[in-house]
Amino acid sequence: MCSGLGLDSDVKAAVLKYDAENDYEKISGSIEKLYSRESWDKGIDELQEYCGDDERGFRILSICMHCLLRTYDGYMEKGISEKVFFDTAGFIPRFLNEHKRVHGTSAFTWAHWIPRQIAMEEFRIGDYEYELIDDGEKKKISLHIPSDAELASGDIEAVYPFLERYYPEYSGAEMFCSSWLLVPALRELLDKDSNIIKFQSRFSVYEVDEDSPSFMDWVYSSREIPYSELPEGTTLQRNMKKYLLSGGKIGWARGIYRK
Q: What value does the mean pLDDT take over residues 244-253?
């Protein structure tokens, strides 16, 4: 699993060390909760309590990767390719590397998100990730946008052949996206031919939370930076900083995909 994900040698060493030390019999009940949406938050909370002072998150990562071994078997039993498995689990090295880029050292801080992959309720197909959600009333698909996705050329509908083959009950489900990329204010900051504007034009926005600070995590890597000190490394960062300092709001938005 470590090799398939291409983990750095220091991360791999830590994960294997913790894996050998973990008392999987003791935490089996908590692990089982990770395979169900209704209980996975509680399961992660219990496992983080078991891990104790896990400053870099490598112990909880070792447990989650242990769980992914069972998930891998689930892929094989269903006939889903190994490529889709590792593309989906590629969430792990992507966020490890992003943390290292920003903070200078690797750390796993997204344990609350990984149960989606463990429970086989989210898959990466091509450029995007698709979370399959059954809220009891209807089935929906939540589109997630990895940091390495190609907004210009990414095929949002690439998931449909996959669904028709493996999850036909979702093949006609409504697809929605929750992201800062859909915020209408971006039209004031970017050219109409920008990849972001082209991407958001494929959605009908139905909700905007102007006061959400979450966009800061994705545009500036932290929501703790004062607006006056925001970096200006890209055109978007420069335009957005100016916009924010003038009293403008970015926030977060949700939209329905126009198939």
A: 96
Single-letter amino acid, residue 189: L
Q: How far apart are CA 96 and CA 257, in angstroms?
A: 30
Whose CA is closest to 87, among 146, 136, 155? 146
Q: What is the pLDDT of residue 176?
A: 97
Residue 152 — very low, low, confident or very high, per pLDDT cuts 50/70/90? Answer: confident
Backbone angles phi, psi at 46, to 5 degrees: -65, -40
Helices 82-89 and 58-78: angle between axes, nearest 10 degrees: 160
Q: Of 89, 80, 157, which Cα lies nearest the Cα of 124?
A: 89
Q: pLDDT tens, 11-52?
A: 999 999 999 999 999 999 999 999 999 999 999 999 999 999
Summarised one tens digit per residue, pLDDT across range 211-246 is 999 999 999 988 999 999 999 999 999 999 999 999
Q: What is the DSSP letter of 33?
A: G
- In the chain, CATH 3.40.630.120 sits at 122-259
Separate counts of helices (H) and strands (E) for the chain: 12, 6
The Cα 93–Cα 84 span in angstroms is 15
Other beta carbons less than 10 A from residue 15's beta carbon? 24
| Fold of the domain spanning 122-259 | Aminopeptidase (3.40.630)
- Residue in 186, 220, 228, 3 with CA at minimum distance from that of residue 98: 220
User: Three-state SS for 259?
Assistant: coil
Q: Give every strand in the sheet of 203-209, ordered side by side.
A: 122-125, 128-134, 139-144, 174-179, 252-257, 203-209
pTM: 0.93
